[in-house]
Amino acid sequence: MRQKHALIPTLRTVAEAETASHRLLLRGGFIRQLAAGVYTFLPLGNRVLRKVETIIREEMDRIGAQELLMPTLHPAELWQESGRWANYGPELFKVTDRHERNFAMGPTHEEVVTDLLRGEINTYKKLPMTVYQIQTKFRDEKRPRSGILRGREFLMKDAYSFHADLESLDRMYRNMYDAYVSIFTRLGLDFRAVEADSGAMGGKGTHEFMALSDVGEDTIAMCESCDYAANVEMAAIRSVGSDSTGSVKDEVPPVKKVATPNKASIEEVAGFLGLPTKRLVKSLLFLVDGEPVLVLVRGDHEANDVKVKNLLEGSAVSMADEETVFRVAGTLPGFVGPVGLKQPVRIIADHAVAELDELVVGANDQDAHLLHVKIGRDFHVDEVADLRLIRPGDACPRCGGVIGFRRGIEVGHVFKLGTRYSEVMNARFLDADGKERPFIMGCYGIGVSRVVAAIAEQHRDEHGIIWPVAVAPFQVHLITVNAKNDEQVRLAETLYDRLRNAGYEVLYDDRPERAGVKFKDADLIGIPVRIIVGAKAGEGMVELTLRRSGETAECSASEVQRQLPDWLKRSDISDQR
Ligand code: 9G3
Questions:
Q1: Which residues sit with their C-beta closer than 6 Å to ligand 1?
Q2: Given CB 3.0 to 4.6 Å as the disulfide criterion, which of 113, 201, 485, 537 pairs with 491?
Q3: What's residue 16's pLDDT?
Q4: Whose CA is nearest to atom 16 of ligand 1?
């Protein structure tokens, strides 16, 4: 492509843009915003997007997934069948057609694909079957931000697999998992597959693929010694013994009530009583599907809402409002405790609480706490479980090593759905015994447009993006230092034709701009190998430069073609982490 007539509107500065990738994608002329969370991919951005898609298609086709293209306009009826029309709230874009019929603009396609398969497949002989698409999705995010990292209209590869039994689903899940490892490796991403929570999706078993980045919205608990990695929402706590407290006293003195005048926070009470926070216990009243449940965690720990929800199999889990706290405990949240509640509630305690010899808890009385409380003697615990949030420094649940926190951008997510959709939508097949059974399903997503931003986050310097060769908009950036110098232009034109005829993708900066401007733009655009045609054009000499390392070498124009394969390879090797 010749830059003189190309739509590559580079910018020296951009006003807003809190993340580097957003700033550089705007400045490099890759994207432009149309509305909040809605973006145009300009020619360079589009070329990167298409390369990402090609890599994804190759890996999907390799594992036998069949590509199709489903609509973005979904009849409301399908979403009503699955029960998601009402409960997905404002994030679900809804439109009405000229006949007043309601549609959802698809945020995902479980309903559509399940409807498709229930109409076309009814025998186990046709299973397993996996289909996928690369399609536009719509989600009315409350706060779209960071450019295409979290848009309201974005490109997703979503695959869906249909099985007669769980073993078959497990095989496809493994194949998809491995395909994702290949995809993200080929894309040049530094990523981790982490155990995740399947959330509202139901089903058992799910992994998120996280591109490590400080601008990532998710926090990953990662072990420094083994390859354990989990979304902090899911990270398990190493079992008993890791939280052993001080002396084991056979005799706990009777409960003693102490005044703790307006000391509501754990830190204030601990300070007032001259105790470490780990000797205190937080009593948190949750509402799980409307039922109050008292959760006890150690004062220096945080309750993990996702673990509470998963333990209680509750779909709606929230902290109880003050009115409920008053009704159940008769006091303010800071003084709630498990002893002397106004009404009996289910009490579940984290392992670390169960290991304490005695507890300091709220007295269920304004400005008072109880000392020397003993589980079993002074109150009954219904269940002891892993309910707390993992912390940096905790022991790895798998090997006991040290857990660290990293932030990540979720670029992929694979789920074992089971019959979550096929049951409710009556999508069934006849099994080998002639018995009708609901499809067992899996679903697998990659945020294709988000991946472009994740790559830009991980591959950049202060001058611009540095595209891995596999996704770069072009392989070679050919630049004349002085477009008015005949010798330079002649040599550049010759190289341009020769390289393109050899099958290379070449962006040729033929603009009559000052050299400084052309090099600044080249840094922003980030094409891996640069060929500079300058003063020595008359001698048939050019310069080769790697965008990533800045490595430069003179080379005769006739040698360029032989050298390129090695220079392209060096561009990526210098990036190996
Ligand atoms: C909605 C809206 C937003 C949503 C969903 C539904 C996320 C929704 C989860 C998934 C699960 C998988 C197939 C590809 C991989 C991910 N946001 N999810 O279901 F109505 Cl408004 O999309 N789907």
A1: 84, 88, 91-92, 107-108, 139, 158, 201, 413, 415, 443-445
A2: 537
A3: 74
A4: 445
